[in-house]
Amino acid sequence: MSPRTKISIIIASALVLFGILISVLFDVFPGREEPLAPEEERVALPDRGEGLPEGAVFDAANADEFAAMYPSAAAAASVGTLEREAESLAVFFLERFGTYSSDSGNARFTDLAGFMTAPLVQELESYAVQNPVREGFYSITAELGSIETEEFAPERRAARFRAVLNRTEVSGGAIETYQQEAVIDLSQSGSSEWLVSGVAWGERI
User: Fold this and answer.
1) Model-level pTM greater than 0.85?
2) For residue 196, is pLDDT > 80?
C-alpha cells in the first residue's frame, strides 16, 4: 500500500469520526427527539360578580331580586346572613323576655312589642291582664347559655331555635340559680324583617 493511499484512509477515517462526534453533540439522529408535551388548554372562569350590577349589595331587603339574577350566590349568602339575623333576634328576645321583676311589672311586654307579630302581642297582653303582678319583691334574669337552630326555612320565611338560658331567681330573700330550656319561633314580615311569633319555656335542667 502506497503512502498516498494510507494518508487517504487516515483522512477518511478522521472525517467519519468527526461526523459521528458532531452527530452526538447536536443530537441529530432520527428518533432521539423527545415528544413535545401538549399545551394545557386554558379554561376561562367567569368572574365572581359577573351578571351583577356594579356596587350591588346583598341584604335581606333585596333577597328576591338577587335570587332571580344570581341564584347560586344568593342562596349561599342568604342562608348565612338571614339565619344570623334571626338568631341574633332570638337571643336578644329571650334574654329580655326572661328578665323582669315585680318593680317593673309587665313592662317587658311593652318593650318587646315592636319585635313580635301582632298575634303574639295580643296573646301577651291578655296574659298580663289575667296574671297581675305578685305581691312582695320578685325578680328573675335570663342569660344565654347556648342556642341551636332547630329549623330554618327561608322559603317559608320561618325559623325555630332551641336555647338553654342561665337563670337566677330571687323570691322572698331566697336566691335560686338554674338552667332552663326555651323554644322560640320567628317569621319574616312582608318587608323581610324577622319577628318573634312564639316563645315557650321548657323544663329546668
Assistant:
1) no
2) yes
Q: What strand order describes the sheet that includes 100-101? A: 100-101, 138-153, 158-171, 174-188, 194-204
| CATH code, 175 | 3.10.450.230
Q: Kindly report the CA angle at 22 between 18 and 28, in degrees rounded to 5?
A: 140
**Cell numbers that stand for 187 in this block:** 317569621
Chain length of the chain: 205
Expressed as residue numbers, the domain containing 116 is 61-204
Q: What is the DSSP letter of 12?
A: H
Q: What is the mean pLDDT of the chain?
A: 79
Q: State the DSSP code for 116.
A: B
Cell numbers for 161: 331555635
Residue 8 lies in a domain: no
